[in-house]
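User: I'm designing a mutation panel for Disintegrin and metalloproteinase domain-containing protein 10 and want to avoid disrupting the core. Could you give me a predicted structure to guide residue selection? Please restate the sequence first so the numbering is unambiguous.

Assistant: Good idea. Sequence first, for numbering, then the predicted structure tokens:
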Amino acid sequence: MDLVLMVCTCILSIHVAKADGTVGKTGDVVCQTDGYELIEAKFGKEVHTLCLQLKPIGTSPLTNRNSALFLEPDPDETPKEYQGFPLSEITMAYGFPVKDPGRGSAEGYIGEDHQFYGVLHFGNRTLHADPYGKDDPTKFFGAFENDNMAAPRSRRDHAQPPQRSIFARSVGYFPFSIENRSRVPGVARARICDLLLLADKEFFEKDANSSLNHVVRRMMHAIAQADIIFRNADFNEDGVPDNIGFSVKYILVLTSTETNMRVFGDLLSTKAINGRNYLMRFARLRRLSEVCLGVAFSGHAFQNRTLGLSFTSLGGGMGGAAGGLCDRRAYGRSFNTLAIAHATTEDKARVPERIAALTLAHEMGHSFGAHHDDNFPNPECRGHLMGSQSSTAENGMNFEFSLCSKRLIAATLSSMSYCLMEEDIPYCGNGIVEEGEACDCGLPSRCVHKDPCCTPRGGGALIYKEGTLHKEGCSVAPLAMCHPSQGLCCTPKCMLADLTKSGIVSNHIIFYTIKISKFIKKIAERL
């Protein structure tokens, strides 16, 4: 009996809280003692103080050891001096709101202007940083209609087999074979789509203030938002997220008129450009044959108020043309590409990051075989990510795939995902409890509903460990006494269970709880 009681009490996470149940100034302590810093961030008319930690991009699951930044497009000959710049010194920001660390998490970056750009998931709300008050949440920016293009060949099996040119041999051709590897216990196997990101000169100048650090951070933040959406999607409907993610292999930034002309020619000389021609020019880059998908970030406006364009994968089961993820290079082009517009036809108007991130995830959905939800009679599929209109709603559904989209993407993954790499690395935020995690509530915007006892990805669980106060995501929430996954001693309301009816004397539980409470009090006194 005593052994059972010890198990019930020792599973409790140690949290620091004041007597009134609030966290108090512990957020300040974390910022001062564990490499965090306090940032005042603006979200429209709201201002929130965030406790943020800057982490090198190289430590992110969105990069790998081969990730590099290039300023030159494909050279005409063997690339003797074709060198990339490392991403190790470029940082992203992760943290939580000081006001309520347990219910909120923040992800983004600090710009060259020292302002925070990114998202704050606060309870059941998602706020987007708007440092200069330029984002109007009620404004309609454009449509997704006719954004999925047909590649100029009728069937994927009509494509030429990949040819190994001198350039391809020198840089290493994309490996289509998948290596058999044993699984790592306690870790959900992820399937990763490698990316090539391109920023044209207009995007570099207008949306990143001609800063290499800023342009990389902005693109990586957009990819991160799409990544967590895909990671949490249960495409095969087995009740468990499929853990499909992204990793950036190449970043190409066109900083000069000469490099811009080499890729797009004189296409970019008009105010509103033909998005289809833009995508076709982008598809000529030879390095696209080494990645799963290529994403172009354009600082221009596309005609007809189009926000983005992509080639839709044939694997979705609805016919159509070849293209999308893993598409092999043929006839001098790779149709595993998509493009996002960051300008409107209105003078000096830019597409805000929240709309650009939504557009990116939407176009990636096309690349994985999804079609517009409006095409299906099922009303349950409406109002999700693959709708044909850009949405200003904040109900969270527009950042999730509908059942109709999931089934199309599942068909693509079962037949056309041979270029996805398998990875066995824990990922906080994919909705799967893995090694080192007490819990995982998945999408931060859904955590308060899905698992209120759990701290979201990047959230502020305050844990005293090895003499230092730490912040961790995927941990028991600061004001929760326990988590239901820890056993029958914890209720769904994150409270200790009354096990008297089960033959366990409650005063024994109280005895051990008091001992832990005294230890917590000593920790609080040190702060």
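For picking mutation sites, this is relevant: The chain has eleven helices and 18 strands. The mean pLDDT is 79.
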